[in-house]
Amino acid sequence: MAKTLELTVPDIGGYDDVPVIEVLVAVGDTVAQDQGLVTLESDKATMEVPATQAGVIRELKVKVGDTLSEGSVVAVIEVDGEAGDAAKPAAAEKTAEKSAEKTAEAPKKSEAPGNNPPVARSHRAPAEPEAVQAAPSSGRKADVECRIVVLGSGPGGYTAAFRAADLDLDTVLIERYDTLGGVCLNVGCIPSKALLHAADVIDQAQHASDYGVDFGAPEISLDKLRSYKEKVVGQLTKGLSGMAKQRKVRVVAGTGTFVSPNEIEVAGSDGKTTLVRFEQCIIAAGSQALKLPGFPWDDPRVMDSTDALELAEVPKQLLVVGGGIIGLEMATVYRALGSNVTVVELADQLMPGADKDLVKPLADRLKKQGVSVHLKTKVVEAKPEKTGIVVEFDGENIPDTKLFDRVLVAVGRSPNGGKIGADKAGVRVGERGFISVDAQMRTNVPHIFAIGDLVGQPMLAHKATHEGKLAAEVAAGEKKEWVARVIPSVAYTDPEIAWVGITETEAKAKGLKVGVGKFPWAASGRAIGLGRTEGFTKLVFDEATHRIVGAGIVGVHAGDLIAEAALAIEMGAEVADIGHTIHPHPTLSESVAMAAEVYDGTITDLYIPKKK
């Protein structure tokens, strides 16, 4: 006998009043157990509410724009009587192959907030009510035809293209730069890390005098430093070119723009155009640096991050507008090379989004190194003069210096969704340039996918690579979806700052019941030997289950260490799992285990009085 049940929202990590951005089913639909019903989007993540029972949807209780909390009724489902009595919560799974009967998995139902953190998803804006009118086919003879085309060859794009080729799809890769790799390899992640390495060597050489090794003052050759940076970039881009040939991926150089749902026109630097006709497409067009109004951008002394990496000169006075990751990384480079650096940030802390205690060791070190940092301060005017850029400020902590040789504006990046003619393909693009996608990275046009920066925060290469691989596999017919619990963030400053999962600040703001284990590197033999004891490792645990839900590390090589914490969160590790894993000694990695021991009250490398 058939019966009806209410399908409700399971525990979603302690979140309340989370907006519905998409309704995935309709009245009359037959749904499988664990199939997504609606999509919710908090300020941290996007998550689907699963059906806890297979059956037929008889009534929907929600619409786009409603807000839901744990226990809210989503729909009424008609089920078989025996099956209804045996209804059980859905189990969480990683991104993995799904059977035909089980097309979508959902986060595990938790017993307490933080037991399983909200699933990390790309930005998925509410669907726009208006349909986008796609352009008709050009009717022209195509220069290139393929099964699938990837627009953009950054980390997400080349991963998507290579995976598609490995799955025997005839693949074309479009790239606007002369070499593969996109912004990240050519003018972003890789060249900046090469320069940061040089800055680190300079600092280590200066520090060596503390233990009796004196190298003297560095002599810097900008030409050789540029050559080193370009050699690093060239080695990687050459490798990508080789792998593309090995996989028989055809590369078309130029800037691609949609002209219809199945055509992209590529404008080459030589003025010639190439028409590419495709069956499927993965958009991986990335983002570009934001150019704030009010700055004289036609003056080469005003730079974005790409300009700064060119190392035209080492300015005596450098102003960095923006105290986020990119701004502080470039401040680190130029300070080491000899610039007097001033940083202004509108927020009340450097690197907004990270816990303040993580940022403090970096702020203290910058101060000791002579970097002038001004919070709650903004630029109101920048005028080019013969002697430099004259800048006027407003805020609580205005810099004394007003004349700068160069100004670096590093206040974020803007997605390129609105620059590729996506409307000609019928793809909806939001006002800010983001493209909405579902859990399989599909846009509103089923045969077109989108990945990376232009589908939303966080704008990180390692997120894009996973999305690119997923999109290619789905395009090849595999039953998969995006289910990543956490995505780590790293600032390659000195010291490095890395965090993943729920931050301590976020947990407090949301009223989550968490505990923290914090191990100071002043008690680490390895850190003492390196002369870098300012760091620490912090783990955040759910108090009810003792499972790790977040982590933050500040110190040298923090970016390398954070992966262990990310894996622990993905695996649902408890405090004992981490603390009882034998870490090699003496290493910085053992600070992760010791932070767990601090939380567990079993630490022997510190003396912590027992709580009364």
Please provide a written account of the structure:
It is a single chain. The protein has 612 residues and is α/β, with parallel strands linked by helices. The N and C termini lie far apart (59 Å).
Element layout with pairings:
Layout: E1 2-8, E2 18-23, E3 30-31, E4 36-41, E5 46-50, E6 55-60, E7 67-68, E8 73-80, H1 81-85, E9 144-151, H2 155-166, E10 171-175, H3 182-187, H4 189-207, H5 222-246, E11 250-253, E12 255-260, E13 263-267, E14 273-283, E15 287-289, E16 302-303, H6 305-308, E17 317-321, H7 325-337, E18 340-345, H8 356-368, E19 372-375, E20 377-385, E21 388-395, E22 403-404, E23 406-409, E24 413-415, E25 448-450, H9 461-475, E26 489-491, E27 496-501, H10 504-509, E28 514-520, H11 525-530, E29 536-542, E30 548-555, H12 558-570, H13 575-579, H14 590-600
Parallel strand pairs: 9-10, 9-14, 10-11, 14-25, 16-23, 17-18, 17-23, 18-19
Antiparallel strand pairs: 1-8, 2-4, 2-7, 3-6, 4-5, 6-8, 12-13, 13-14, 15-24, 20-21, 21-22, 26-27, 27-30, 28-29, 29-30
Helix pairs in contact: 2-9, 4-5, 4-7
Helices and strands: which structural class? alpha/beta
Q: Tell me, rounded to a whole number, the average pLDDT.
A: 88
Q: Whole-Å distance between the termini?
A: 59 Å
Strand content: 25-35%
Number of E-type strands: 30
> Helix amount, in percent?
25-40%
Radius of gyration: 26 Å
| Shape descriptor | globular
Q: What's the story with the biggest beta sheet?
A: 7 strands, mixed
